[in-house]
């Protein structure tokens, strides 16, 4: 007897929470590439630089014009206060100063926009231009993604979505990576997809060490319920027969088949509601070669509740990964209950 944690396992692609193509807002020639592909950039850091010499000249010219109009406005104001010029003349000079100031701001903004900057902290995923290339306004120049915060986008059924709550803890694993990373449910869909009738669920995961890569398919496990003090056996010990699901137990050196009724399941383990009692010697390997009432000789005894021994690789252990349902039991959700 043991406690069995029932979870919902879903798979889906890992996507960056933030990722965007950045484009130039000015036309010009690429002067320098300040960040290579794969390099880390901070918000506001220059990624691509256009040739800004002409824009710099326009900015300085606008600045000089604004300074001249400031002098004229100050001089005209003194004359107006001395009743030497009309109010209309004063208004005209003041308006010219405002126009000059706005023209300077436009020139300065264009000069700054020619230095294309990262909109947020992230990495340069790709570049679409080279030094010396002529680009026009609106042309994409690079892609910036934030690989340090990812989200797994998966789908669950109508029955499963009722058991998932926003901010619920989750564990994310990647095939071949051999790691489990804690995550949090950040979004639970409220409308089923017309394509498959399932609900979208997103799991947010922090990825500061870049153990997970954006774009790959991962699996997430979200806790559904904990069943206390139940009989749980390795799922692989179950044999499908024409008469239903069976297991074999050893009684006086004989293989005795037992019909079982299953309950909650989680990964490699499944609850047995009827058919087994504590103390039964359950066959966990070689059961598919047994015949009812056949003689057996026990060669090894499992040392873990998942039916493994110390020399087994971590991939087949309960705590080693988030396993997939074996093919011989895939699709038996109704039979398992």
Provide an overview of this structure.
This protein has 337 residues and is of the alpha+beta class. Helix content is 18%, strand content 38%. The chain is built from 3 helices and 20 strands. It has helices at 53-81, 87-113, 158-161; strands at 2-16, 19-23, 28-33, 40-41, 46-50, 115-117, 122-127, 134-135, 140-145, 149-156, 169-174, 180-188, 199-206, 217-230, 232-234, 239-241, 244-251, 254-259, 261-266, 269-274. Strands 1-10-13-12-11-14 form a 6-stranded antiparallel beta barrel. β19 and β20 form a beta hairpin. It is elongated and about 120 Å long. The two termini are 19 Å apart.
List the helices and strands and how they pair.
Elements lengths: L1 E15 L2 E5 L4 E6 L6 E2 L4 E5 L2 H29 L5 H27 L1 E3 L4 E6 L6 E2 L4 E6 L3 E8 L1 H4 L7 E6 L5 E9 L10 E8 L10 E14 L1 E3 L4 E3 L2 E8 L2 E6 L1 E6 L2 E6 L63
Antiparallel strand pairs: 1-10, 1-14, 2-9, 3-5, 3-8, 4-7, 5-6, 7-9, 10-13, 11-12, 11-14, 12-13, 15-20, 16-17, 17-18, 19-20
Helix pairs in contact: 1-2
């Amino acid at each position: 007897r043991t406690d069995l944690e029932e979870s919902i396992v879903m798979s889906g692609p890992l996507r960056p929470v933030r990722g965007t193509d950045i484009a130039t807002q000015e036309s010009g020639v690429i002067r320098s590439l300040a960040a290579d592909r794969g390099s880390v950039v901070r918000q506001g850091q220059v990624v691509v630089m256009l040739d800004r010499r002409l824009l710099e000249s326009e900015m300085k010219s606008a600045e000089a014009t604004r300074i001249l109009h400031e002098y004229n406005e100050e001089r005209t104001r003194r004359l107006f206060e001395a009743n030497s010029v009309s109010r209309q003349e004063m208004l005209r000079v003041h308006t010219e100063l405002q126009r000059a100031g706005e023209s300077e701001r436009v020139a300065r903004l264009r000069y700054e926009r020619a230095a294309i900057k990262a909109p947020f902290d992230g990495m340069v995923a790709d570049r679409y231009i080279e030094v010396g290339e002529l680009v026009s306004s609106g042309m994409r120049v690079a892609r910036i993604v934030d690989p340090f915060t990812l989200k797994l986008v998966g789908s669950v059924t109508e029955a499963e979505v009722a058991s998932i709550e926003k901010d619920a803890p989750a564990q994310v694993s990647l095939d071949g990576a051999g790691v489990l990373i804690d995550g949090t449910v950040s979004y639970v869909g409220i409308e089923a997809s017309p394509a498959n009738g399932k609900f979208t669920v997103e799991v947010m995961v922090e990825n500061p060490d870049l153990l997970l890569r954006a774009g790959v398919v991962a699996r997430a496990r979200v806790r559904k319920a904990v069943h206390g003090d139940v009989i749980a056996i390795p799922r692989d010990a179950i044999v499908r027969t024409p008469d239903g699901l069976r297991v074999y137990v050893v009684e006086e050196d004989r293989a005795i088949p037992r019909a079982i009724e299953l309950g909650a399941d989680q990964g490699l383990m499944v609850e047995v509601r009827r058919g087994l009692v504590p103390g039964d010697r359950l066959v966990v390997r070689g059961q598919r070669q047994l015949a009812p009432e056949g003689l057996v000789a026990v060669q090894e005894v499992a040392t873990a509740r998942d039916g493994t021994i110390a020399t087994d690789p971590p991939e087949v252990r309960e705590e080693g990964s988030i396993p997939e349902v074996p093919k011989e039991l895939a699709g038996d959700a109704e039979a398992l209950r």
